[in-house]
Amino acid sequence: MERALRAYMEVLRLVRRLPPETRAYYSKYARENFVNYRELDDPSSLPDLLRRAYTHSSWVLSKYSVDVSAADRLKSICSCESA
């Protein structure tokens, strides 16, 4: 659970790097996704969900021409070394 909360906070930090007009949408999107998965039936699926959070965050950053290396902290939290 702690790892998921750290990932969520890092995603919100990354949202601050996006253009101002997109921040509300992506912060709401992140919250909804993390809330939807807060009670996992199978805790072993957490690494996959965190990997998806990293992958999607990287995609959004590149979509808005933000340096994807900004997501390096998220990558280490999610342990996405092979992503």
TrEMBL record:
Q: Which domain of life is it from?
A: Eukaryota
Which one Pfam family would you cite for this protein? Answer: Complex1_LYR
Q: Which InterPro entries match?
A: Complex1_LYR_dom (IPR008011), Complex1_LYR_LYRM9 (IPR045291)
Domain Complex 1 LYR protein span(s) in chain numbering: 3-55
Chain ranges passing through the membrane: none
Family membership, please give it: Belongs to the complex I LYR family. LYRM9 subfamily.
Q: What is this protein called?
A: Complex 1 LYR protein domain-containing protein
The organism is Rhynchospora tenuis
